[in-house]
Hints:
Layout: E1 30-38, E2 47-51, E3 62-64, E4 69-71, E5 74-76, E6 82-83, E7 97-98, E8 109-112, E9 114-118, E10 126-127, E11 130-134, E12 144-147, H1 150-153, E13 164-165, E14 178-181, H2 194-207, H3 209-225, H4 245-264, H5 271-290, H6 299-315, H7 322-331, E15 336-337, E16 342-343, H8 346-352, H9 355-368, H10 384-390, H11 420-427, H12 437-444, H13 453-461, H14 467-473, H15 477-490, H16 501-523, H17 531-545, H18 553-577, H19 582-614, H20 616-626, H21 635-655, H22 659-672, H23 678-691, H24 704-725, H25 731-740, H26 744-753, H27 760-782, H28 787-795, H29 797-807, H30 815-849
Parallel strand pairs: 1-8, 5-11
Antiparallel strand pairs: 1-2, 1-14, 2-9, 3-4, 5-6, 7-8, 10-13, 11-12, 15-16
Helix pairs in contact: 3-4, 4-5, 5-7, 6-9, 14-15, 14-16, 15-16, 15-17, 16-18, 17-18, 18-19, 18-21, 19-20, 19-21, 21-23, 22-23, 22-24, 24-27, 25-27, 26-27, 26-29, 27-29, 28-30, 29-30
Amino acid sequence: xxxxxxxxxxxxxxxxxxxxxxxxxxxxxxxxxxxxxxxxxxxxxxxxxxxxxxxxxxxxxxxxxxxxxxxxxxxxxxxxxxxxxxxxxxxxxxxxxxxxxxxxxxxxxxxxxxxxxxxxxxxxxxxxxxxxxxxxxxxxxxxxxxxxxxxxxxxxxxxxxxxxxxxxxxxxxxxxxxxxxxxxxxxxxxxxxxxxxxxxxxxxxxxxxxxxxxxxxxxxxxxxxxxxxxxxxxxxxxxxxxxxxxxxxxxxxxxxxxxxxxxxxxxxxxxxxxxxxxxxxxxxxxxxxxxxxxxxxxxxxxxxxxxxxxxxxxxxxxxxxxxxxxxxxxxxxxxxxxxxxxxxxxxxxxxxxxxxxxxxxxxxxxxxxxxxxxxxxxxxxxxxxxxxxxxxxxxxxxxxxxxxxxxxxxxxxxxxxxxxxxxxxxxxxxxxxxxxxxxxxxxxxxxxxxxxxxxxxxxxxxxxxxxxxxxxxxxxxxxxxxxxxxxxxxxxxxxxxxxxxxxxxxxxxxxxxxxxxxxxxxxxxxxxxxxxxxxxxxxxxxxxxxxxxxxxxxxxxxxxxxxxxxxxxxxxxxxxxxxxxxxxxxxxxxxxxxxxxxxxxxxxxxxxxxxxxxxxxxxxxxxxxxxxxxxxxxxxxxxxxxxxxxxxxxxxxxxxxxxxxxxxxxxxxxxxxxxxxxxxxxxxxxxxxxxxxxxxxxxxxxxxxxxxxxxxxxxxxxxxxxxxxxxxxxxxxxxxxxxxxxxxxxxxxxxxxxxxxxxxxxxxxxxxxxxxxxxxxxxxxxxxxxxxxxxxxxxxxxxxxxxxxxxxxxxxxxxxxxxxxxxxxxxxxxxxxxxxxxxxxxxxxxxxxxxxxxxxxxxxxx
Length: 862
């Protein structure tokens, strides 16, 4: 509408706010303010005073919709703006009142129009239309009304051309409620002739000069009446308003200016362009100021003001740019007070913000980031802490609950049940992120302690390609395990022979989590209250992994080790805290036994079924990776090592019954034995010691490395058996070892031939054996051998003769000679034994004749 401030009686009033640029300095724009003051409780005869300046009727008059009673139109003049609208009881309302003091900075004249209406009318849409009462000073009879002709001029424009005034019922009882109706800036016509007007109109059709001027007036007016909440950063917490009235005020301002500058004068092609150049521009500028590093806003003021912007954007359907949305999210990031264990902004938010509107606004923001086209931006996650608080997902610094429902279809455990669709859409976006994951997560990590759902929501929102980075160090380990359960299930193979990219990512992440467990175990880093949860979730991971095809070896075995480490830390925690958890311990032991059995049996299965296909080396590499190095005397880890060690030795011994496999095993052990971990090496060494005596006569090392390691193996093998046999350090022990232990002749042969280089101690022992055998041979030759020793040699004649022959390679003492000599000595022993028996019998007979003579009484002597 237009209200000239001077010369109104001399000039015809124009309703075009950009009709004249020349007189803009003399303009006194107008804002119409509406308010509702309840004077009495409701009866049909009781009145409500409402300041209204909203809609119009196309017949140019104000009509009571219920009674269809035509009333005088509202009118305004240059000196006394008034209303000809009769109230429902027949009384005439007061004229408009100019309240310049209510206008911003005294720049405008604010006209307040008070109209008395029945209360029941406020529950309906009230139509009205503006007119201008032009009063001629010379001839008052020529006074006339100039009406706004919206309908005739703007048919088919696509916008609502009727101005409607609607009062919310909830606001009726409030005496201090105020409604605002803005209808733009009123300017007088330019003082120029008709030809100039025509020329200026033609020029405007080419240059748009007048249109630009009108747009400038509109923007200036908009800026002046924009509430302080949306003008500039609020620096003091005390200046923060209750979020609500300002948004309604902006809504009224937008609607009023749209009717004048878009519908009436078409300064903008459509309401979208108008909104972009007004409210969106102001909001973007405000967010730029708020998000500057140099901003002096308090955290509370920034969050509250950002909430106001978010609610306004949602209510007014303001489409912020991607950059502005990102800044808005950063401003919505709350801060914590670690001393008081609280969220700094939470109490002000509860006091100043309507929670329902905030919920809708936060959900709206998240959805905006799913419709960015070919880009991906995780900045919306800055809103997650506030989102969780507002939706009641958690309370600040709430203790983590022992709830294991991470596999449910509704992601309550993940903290994103309210925005499940948003998370699914963001997760499926495979475009490259505009902001690095590090940037977002590093800002959110300090809030993990306050909101244990926060890392869960972050992980739930990203795709499998980001899982590796997220789980490496950022998120709690129970969340990482739960994510692995989800993606292991999601990436289940369609064909056993095919591996998709996501499945490979899961396998990589399994290794990352396992390394993380090992680091935390070695460093003694605890999992705090997450022990039990991690223990249970990692068991779910094992069960899910074992439901996949058996050829997913890495997936199965990595999940087993993850479970073992989590169980070890869980059991250690309860042992240190001495908690009474008998039932939990029993359940945990059952889970541990189940997994240990599954894992060790699976290792045995793949060794028996696949070693011919994979080869011995690959099979042993798999076993080596499953031994846990340095188990820290942990019962769980030691139980696992002992179990698979026993299984492996059993399997290898069974495999080595085949002579070809046996030689391959010894060759591999000598060539690559050092690459295995300590526990695995000891296990292989035990097997090698048991099978090496079967390959002494057939295996020949090829390379120098094999020869050295084979010599070392034989030396330790010899020393080990020496220590077990040579206990009393007497000759008979050496003889017993030499002729009863079959590998001894091979050691003597190797030593004499110098084909291998034994350890010095081993060489000394072999030489001691040779010296002992030679000494015994000499005593046999000399006839001074101990009879028991000779009998023992007779029982092991061949090994003894072989050793003697090996010791005399020059042939000076042949095997047959030694054998005949032993037989000769044994015959001598037999002859001696026969003679000894005869002597024994003779002496016995002699004793029978020994006694006294009966005649003389003397003893008989022989």
